[in-house]
Every structure is written in C-alpha cells, then in structure tokens.
Specification:
Length: 335
C-alpha cells in the first residue's frame, strides 16, 4: 500500500466518521499575522506636489517626497513598521546607465531623509534595481550588443546600495536578478562600515511573471519594457528557484524572497525548508489587482479574501509579507 492510498483511506475515515471537523478544529495551526511582519510598497516620484492614483492599482499612489510624511502619519499611528520604497522617474531623467539610481537627487534618497527625520523607528527597505532609472527599461546595464553586462550592472547596483545605506536605509532589497549581486552589495556595505548594520533582502526566487503587469504602470517602466526572461526565472522551474535562494543565502543575504507569492506557494515551502534565513513573500501588483477587482465585482468580501491569501502564505512558510494591502491590514489586524 503506498502513502497516497493510505492517506486516502484516512481521509475518507475522517470524512465519514464525523471525526474530521473536530480534527481540523483542533489542528488549525497558527493563523496569527503580526503588523510587524508587513512591508508596505510605496512609489516615490521625482515630481513635486504629486499624489497620483495608479490606474491599474486602485488605492495605490505615486507620491512625491514632499507629501510623503503626511501620507505616512496615519499609517504609522495605526502600527505601520516597514515600508519598501520604489523610485519613479519622468522619462527625461532616465539614461542608459540609470545615473539617477545613485544620485542624491533621486526621489528615494529624498524620501529616506524625510522618513528618518520624521519617523525614526520606521524600517526603510529600498528596492534596488536599475529598471526604473534606465532609458531602455532593463534591470541592468547593456553592452554594445544590447545584452546585459553583468559585471557593470552589479557594480552600479553596489553604488546605488551604498548611497541608500549612507542616507539611512535599513534594508537593501536587490530585485534586478543579476548574477552575484548579493555578494557585491554585501562586499560594498562591509567595506564602507555598514556590515551588520544594513541588511540585504534578496529577491531570490523571482519569476518572469505576468502578475507584475500593474507594477509597470506604477513604476513607469512599462513603455520600453523588454523581455526579462533572460534574468528572471521561468515559472515551471522548481530546482532553479530553490538553488537561487540557497545561492543568495550563501552570498550573505539576510532574508530571501519568493515573488510572486500566491501562485508560488509550493516554492515558498521548498525555500523555507532549504534556507535558515527568514523568507519574505511579495504579494505582487497583479495579485493585488485580482483580489481588489474580484471583491469590487461582488465575488467575495475583500477582508476575508486578503486574510485567507496571507494565511495561505503563512502556511506555506512565509515570515514577512510584502503587500499593497498593508494599509487595510493595519485596520483589520489586532495590534
Ligand atoms: N525589478 C523591479 C521590480 N521590483 C518589483 C517588481 C514587481 C512588483 C509588483 O508587481 O508588485 C518589479 C518588476 C519586475 O521585475 O518586472
């Protein structure tokens, strides 16, 4: 008798003996999600006095640093503990090498300064990638044949990370998917006195996913957006995804990430079993849009659906939740 058959017998016994309900009730597991495990993604623009709702992400905004403090105040009062910042540039500010990514004029640098002054305890995570800053929209620097130049790219990512750390970021989160970027960023942080002070949350198991669609709108990286399947993982690949997490842990990542989250629950569990560092899961823009629009169309209650989606992540092994629903969750979750 194989395991599957055994399990079937057991299940049907529970089902028909009236035993199942008491078993599942006493076996619910821990469904608690804490506010301190949430990270709220925020898009900061280089324009002034701007708070633009993102069309494909209703309820989410591109916001300029001068309005950021007022925007965050009520959320911090409700228990917001962490944000992840994404820079958004007007097209004329972009160039081939993404110069603004490591410029003191970048909206992310301005935002870190303001958050540090006004909310000293807020944990600032910064997305580190070049796609929002390059004119071609790729996550790295291209060579003369329009292929990614890995070495040049990770050097730029190191420069960007150092500036963000110097400005006051707590966590550097590389989402570019270039080879060896975690070790390069770690090396730069240690060489400049940030070892043990600023941590690295690596987007490790990041799939080339259509669920990032609305994000392209949000980060204004849509227009010239190219195919990223050369550096993001193919959706069917399980082994690569696990090896990527193990590799990033070896390179010194303090957290690894699985992204998207909901469609990749199996990967979350496998990564959780494979690494010792905490596992962050990114419930991405497309997952947000699906839940939002389905609830708006009356398919289900938003709060129930969002909580169930996050509890599923927890069951799979999630330690940290990156979700656009963070403001809602601050209302829904107990302190
Ligand atoms: N590299 C940048 C980046 N950082 C986070 C996302 C997606 C997040 C979301 O969809 O919410 C992306 C887009 C991409 O890589 O294609």
């Amino acid at each position: 008798m194989d395991g599957g058959f055994n399990f079937g017998l057991e299940a049907s016994h529970h089902l028909h003996s009236g035993y199942s309900h008491s078993v599942t009730r006493s076996w619910q597991g821990d469904s608690t999600i804490l506010k301190s495990q949430l990270i709220y993604p925020i898009f900061v623009t280089d324009e002034q006095n701007k708070k633009n709702e993102i069309k494909s992400l209703p309820g989410q905004y591109q916001i300029s640093p001068d309005l950021l403090v007022e925007f965050l105040k009520p959320l911090v009062a409700k228990g917001l503990k962490s944000v992840i910042l994404f820079g958004v540039l007007i097209n004329s500010a972009k160039d081939e090498v993404g110069s603004m990514a490591s410029s003191k004029d970048s909206p992310v640098v301005h935002s870190i300064q303001l958050i540090r002054q006004n909310f000293p305890d807020l944990c600032i995570v910064c997305d580190v990638c070049l796609c929002a800053y390059t004119s071609h929209g790729h996550c790295g620097i291209l060579d003369t044949e329009n292929k990614i130049d890995n070495q040049k790219s990770i050097k730029r990512l190191g420069e960007m990370s150092l500036l963000l750390a110097q400005t006051g970021a707590n966590v550097i989160a590389p989402s570019d998917m270039m080879d060896c970027r975690v070790s390069e960023i770690k090396r730069v942080l240690f060489a400049n006195g940030f070892g043990g002070k600023v941590s690295v949350m690596a987007y490790s198991s990041k799939f080339a996913s259509c669920f990032y669609g609305p994000f392209r709108d949000a980060a204004s990286s849509g227009a010239k957006f190219g195919d990223r399947s050369a550096y993001q993982l193919p959706p069917p690949s399980r082994g690569l995804a696990i090896r990527a997490a193990e590799r990033d842990e070896k390179e010194g990542a303090d957290f690894v990430m699985v992204k998207p989250a909901g469609p990749y629950l199996d990967i979350i569990r496998d990564v959780k079993n494979a690494v010792k560092v905490p596992v962050a899961c990114y419930q991405v823009s497309g997952e947000y849009a699906m839940l939002y629009h389905a609830a708006a169309a009356g398919a289900f209650n938003l709060q129930s659906a969002v909580l169930e989606s996050l509890i599923s992540l927890k069951r799979a092994g999630c330690d940290i939740y990156i979700t656009y629903f963070t403001p809602n969750l601050l209302d829904w979750l107990p302190l």
